[in-house]
Amino acid sequence: MEHGYAVGQMGNADQTPVWFDMPVACTVNEKGAKEVKVRSAGYEKQRMTLMLACTADGHKLPAYIIFKRKTLPAREVFPRNVIVRANENGWMASDMVEQWIRMVWQRRPGALLAKRSLLVLDSYRGHLTDGVKAALSEAGTDVAIIPGGMTGQLQPLDVCLNKPFKDRLRKYYVDWLSEERRELTPTGRIKRASLGVVATWIAAAWDDIPESLVARSFRKCCISNALDGSEDSALFEEASDKEVSDDDDE
C-alpha cells in the first residue's frame, strides 16, 4: 500500500455463523453412563450470520446481525448497539455488505476526518463486487483481501477474537437455559429465546472482548506493527490471562 494509515483507521471485518442453540462441548456425568444428556432448546439447526468488525486501536464496531427469516417482528425490541436485519437465507449478501459499509464502517470513530483507511477482508465473493468496491472507494478506504486458506494466519478476527466471542456468547445462552422459569411450547419444548434476547447476548459478548486483545490481534497478524520491526515478536505472543476468559479453554 502506498498510504500510511492511522492505527484507528485500520480495520478488519468478518462474517461468522451462529446457531440459536449453543450446547456446551463437555458435560459432567457418572463414569460409565451409557447415555449423556446435553441440555438444549432443540433449535440447533437454526442459525444467523454476524458481521463483526474492529480497528487496530482496539475499538469494536457495532455487531451487524442477520437473522434467517423474511422479516423482523414488528414489536421486537433490540439493543441500540447492534444493527439487525433479516434475510431468507441468513447470509450476508453483497447488498448487505454495501449497507454495512454505510451504517457501520463509515460511522466508525475518525471516519469523518477524511484520512485514508484500510479494511482487511477475506476473499468471500460478496466482498469483491463492483458495488462493494465502489462503496469503499467512496469512503476513502483501501481494501486488503486475504487469500483463500490464509485467514487462520492473517485475519485478526479469525486468529484471536471469534473463539472468545463465541465462548462468551455460549455462556449467556447456557445461563438462560439454566433459568427455572422459561416459557414452553404446547408440546413441552423450551420456547426459543426471542430475537431481542439473542441480540442482547451478542451485544454483551462482543462488549466483553477486551480492547487490549483486539489491538493485539492486529499486531499478531502483522497489520499494525511498527515499521521499525520492534513489534514483530507479537506474531509469537499468546493472549494474557486477563484478555482471554476461562471459557476459552473449553
UniProtKB/TrEMBL annotation:
GO MF, one annotated term: DNA binding
Domain DDE-1: residue ranges: 45-218
UniProt superkingdom: Eukaryota
InterPro entries hit by this protein: CenT-Element_Derived, DDE_SF_endonuclease_dom
Pfam families: DDE_1
A GO cellular component entry from the record: nucleus
Identification of the protein by name: DDE-1 domain-containing protein
